[in-house]
Amino acid sequence: xxxxxxxxxxxxxxSLTQSTGQIAIATIASLVETLSHLRSQGYRVIxxxxxxVGIGCAxxxxxxxxxxxxxxxxxxxxxxxxxxxIYDDLFSNLxxxxxxxxxxxxxxxERNTYVNVSNTFRELLDLGVIxxxxxxxxxxxxxxxxxxxxxxxxLVASLVQADWLFLLTDVDRMYSADPKTVAHAQPIKLVSxxxxxxxxxxxxxSGSQWGTGGMATKLxxxxxxxxxxxxxxxxxxxxxxxxxxxxxxxxxGTQFEPQPQTDxxxxxxxxxxLIPMGKLYLDSGAxxxxxxxxxxxxxxxxxxxxxxxxxxxxxxxxxQDGMELGRGLVNYNNSExxxxxxxxxxxxxxxxxxxxxxxxxxxxxLVMTENIKESSKE
Length: 378
Prior knowledge:
The chain is an alpha/beta fold. 35% of the residues lie in helices and 18% in strands.
């Protein structure tokens, strides 16, 4: 196996803290040792670490995770500094440089900032640094939140075109049901790319009292990552050294086989970086044109417009039953499309009073749903 592969590791709050909310130092030390060893072997490593809010709660002697946004952001500000201090102390003992990278979805929404983030990661990895990534809870607002660090880690893995994404959690692998409560729960060792949609799992929506994730968010993350060519593994967070064994081919955790990786960074950005701001409903002719013939979307094929959006925003393209067919960047805002929908492109200038492009979504800015495996929650 090549020693120049890129690995993204996500560890959750439930693995970083004890049931009391106190820091699980032994687990963090094992994680640091494992990641430093990977770096010494030539792997390029990114750590996506939860824990800021949980550690902030412990620092402030709070008995439960805050529900009020302003309080949670304040607690995250307390916990993030403490978390990075712990990581810095432990990594420094092993002479491994680290960097803090705090993100909101805002950095992935605009193409320029998306490229800047990508360039920053590349330079850090070239320098041999391990970036430690977390959502910027202190400033994030609801509409620009990732929602959980499982999703964030999948988007980071896609952004850097990683080879592996390891999701460290509080179970050794994925099961058909919660093994803590269902005695007959069956372990799932491997999920091929063509089995994902048929996967039958009772996935809880929430994790521990200190965290935000659950198996459902990990499945959504695996769907995002594998669809962009990243092999994804769910394994035990209390044993970070499992990563080394899995890379050596040992049968641990649940592995999700990736689809072929694409080099089209712009389409990955449209698929996962952008939040759709509206929907366009298409007639059967337009559906066939964009799905089977790979053509651009013209105004004549649009039957309805939903949402308020500007030109260059991302929208979902749906058939008349509401099923998402793809996503794309529009050349007109919602009110303009409302006026020109159903009309031939030659009528655009006459209807709007000015001349513009004849496509509503150009095929170069359109990604079909079979390439968007995220279970959309927008």
